[in-house]
Amino acid sequence: MTDCAVKQCCSSKQPMQNTPINGKFTNHKFLIRGMDCASCAIKIQNALANVAKVKHVRVAFATERLFVSLDEDADPSLIRETVESIGFTLLDANAKEEEKPFWKAYSTFVLLASLMAISIIVMLLFPSMGEQTFFIATAIGTLPFAKKSFNQMKSGTWFGIETLMTVAALGALFLGENIEAGLVLLLFSLGEMLEGFAGRKARAGIKSLMQLTPDTVTRIVDGKREKIQVEFVIPGEVIEVLPGDRIPVDATIQSSIGTFDESALTGESIPVNRKKDEKVMAGCMVIDKPVTLVVESEPGNNAIDRIITLIEEAEESRAPIARMVDKFSSWYTPLVMAIAALVMVVPPLFMGAEWMPWVYKALTLLLIACPCALVVSIPAAVTSALTSASRSGALIKGGAALEQLKNVKVLAFDKTGTLTQGKPKVTTIISLAEDRNELLKLAASLEQGSSHPLAKAIIEHSKEYGIDLVEPETIKVINGRGIIGKVDNREISILAPRYVHSFIMGMNELKEAVEEIESQGNTVVVILEGMAPLGIIGMADTLREDAVDAINDLKKMGIRSVMLTGDNRRAAASIAGRLSIDYKAELLPEDKVKAIQDLQLQNSGAVAMVGDGINDAPALKMAELGIAMGRGSDVALETADAALTHEKLVKLPVMIKLSQKTAKITRQNIALALGINSFFLITTLFGVTGLMAAVLSDAGGTLLVTLNALRLMKQMKIE
């Protein structure tokens, strides 16, 4: 695995670094709390870009990290002051923060919901005081939005979504529509809370990835063992890792041989054997015996750290889909405010009209222009679509992912656990000098008690045939090679072909049988009695039952499928051939990222990645859309934009069709919302309609777009 380009992006276990750059600048790394979506990261970058002596700034939303380059003589406190002034919290890179309680994490929503609930109770008990209570509740609830809007204005963002909400709420309060004003703020804060919750779930996956490597390691110095923090080991030192533990650094094997579970990096469920001087990566688990290793990687630059950095880089290189309301408000809010101001001052100043009627008209216009129907139109359609998808076993994480689905032209699939079941099964048994059932009985009996995936496959296969197993009299495990023991007074051994004596493997019948089975993508073991071969058992990961149907449905929609796998070329070719799709094999995590980038350059539409392992996480993030399998790793599930909770690949075409239908409904809703608003804006200017029409247009428009959106749940319901 090659080093990542940005080496200074290290694990969160590292302390904050302040290092000189060419003697002129210093690098600073912080943690940011309070970001709800990618647009929050953009706001922070824009604010810091305007700070004097800031030469470079980068915000990694996926891992909540901030990287800033400052003039050597600059005071880092400027960074903290700027970030905190726009409503976010800045922490040192090595800070450990406890999880905030619900009421504190979502304080704005809790405040508004509590105030509105109190107001409703007061209105029911004391009707005469209801309006005043709602006025006070909404006025207090407006303060957080107004404060955030003011801070954003100071940092250069003049017309954000918070400004739109603040103006709309204050206008409604001025006209006496207190309940309307409160609901506008409450619904918006609910959306913000849900968006923030989704962001925190995504970051939880990255944190679990960071925890994949242990914090401590056993170092061997002059034959003595000492437990130390991983940050203090350096390349060239010798460490020891026990069975069941994960390797904390990239290293080379000093022991003679060892067996490792590398699924965290390659996604392949079958453990592999590594010999002396071979390299193993951080995150791999030792299987059978203690191993001594020579450290290769610098602190903060092991395989897991590089995967985290790849995720961060992919987050940045993939342009974030800005919320439509943010884009809309950037020009709509100032335009409406300008028109309202003209309506209020032009007739009294230049036409001799009375002030109060035109002030009333201007505020009515402002209330009509409050885009409640427009704000609701997209979330209503998205919520209906997401609900429909979840009923069918497809979890789509938000509107941006749903929107991107309709643009997918290429689907890249991981092999193991995605196109295949993810665990080996016996596919072939060839008897050479023994009855087939007896051969299976001998092999399964000897493998009893083993946790090796191949052993489990043999035992499971024997159960399917109802074969009664016997207890082996003796067992001897040959690390990384196989197993030897006595079953029914017979000396039986189960070995990988490469460890069978060359004289025995030279037998034509045995050699040809092994080569034939391996050419079909199987893993092979040879069963012997003494030096006599009894038979061969071939095992392979099996294709998912619905994989062929899913690929065919995608082809009919004009969507190309490609398989990206860390498995060997022979196994990959076997699976890809059965599906009639292209493939790339023997890929490490960064190779999969490169493959996704190549597909993005070669195709005009969006590229989606479907995977299930930790090794797939960078590629899932690099693709325009990442889709995880429901029983995949936590990191893959949290990194992805969608997940197949029932693990049915045939739902992929359905998800894409749902996205296309949602886009159509959304366009209809936007047209309805803008059409209603435009109509009543014109009639208000000409004095045809007034305040009541403004309230009815707002409520009616909201109701219409909601009902239209609900059609998605009916029409796209999947049996």
Automatic annotation (TrEMBL):
Top-level EC class: translocase
Keywords, alphabetical: ATP-binding, Cell membrane, Hydrolase, Membrane, Metal-binding, Nucleotide-binding, Phosphoprotein, Translocase, Transmembrane, Transmembrane helix
UniProt similarity note: Belongs to the cation transport ATPase (P-type) (TC 3.A.3) family. Type IB subfamily.
Subcellular location: Cell membrane
Protein name as it appears in the record: P-type Zn(2+) transporter
Catalytic activity: Zn(2+)(in) + ATP + H2O = Zn(2+)(out) + ADP + phosphate + H(+)
Matches recorded under InterPro entries: ATPase_P-typ_cyto_dom_N, ATPase_P-typ_P_site, ATPase_P-typ_TM_dom_sf, ATPase_P-typ_transduc_dom_A_sf, ATPase_P-type_domA, Cation_Transport_ATPase_IB, HAD-like_sf, HAD_sf
Gene: zntA
